[in-house]
């Protein structure tokens, strides 16, 4: 087990940038099938801006790092993804508050706040073929873990399953909903990028252990 602290939060956001850059073309193609085709480019650009804003670090706290992410995603990411992810990270930052480290319940609360922010902003529900289909099962899964690293591992696995489960769904929100039945048979790009972001949190925790951040 490793402490999910400010150093971890910085590493998480940098890992998000790396992974989303790696999957940029995949996300573009997924979005091209049912949307504007810009999700991969937007997410890549947004998280590169987050890393640039973080600088050499370290952040003062987990909440501070998440707030940086929120502000940069809101200002640099176009389309629906910027406001949705920006709101998610802003709500997550508020939920973390002054905690120095995150245990399982804190991770669950943080993810729930992020999910609720997305729901409030996008007016989407579970089953609408949006990123909510990855976030909602992630919140539930995180609630079964006692420590923060295990909570994120459970959340990431649930988000990955949730993203895959969007394939047969008919979109009821966003641009994809314009396609009606033709939206079925495609993965929702926002759900997929969510799964990458949550998996990056696990990778960051493992990297912290390797770097000597063991609790």
TrEMBL record:
The record lists the membrane-crossing segments as: none
Q: Which InterPro entries is this protein grouped with?
A: DhaK_L_YcgS, DhaL_dom, DhaL_dom_sf, Dihydroxyacetone_Kinase
Q: Which UniProt keywords apply?
A: Kinase, Transferase
Q: Which SMART domains match?
A: Dak2
Which PROSITE patterns does the UniProt record give?
DHAL
**Domain DhaL: residue ranges:** 7-203
Q: Does the keyword Transferase apply?
A: yes
What's the protein name? Dihydroxyacetone kinase subunit DhaL
Q: Please tell me the species this chain comes from.
A: Sinomonas terricola
What taxonomic lineage is listed for the species of origin? Answer: Bacteria, Bacillati, Actinomycetota, Actinomycetes, Micrococcales
Gene this protein is translated from = dhaL
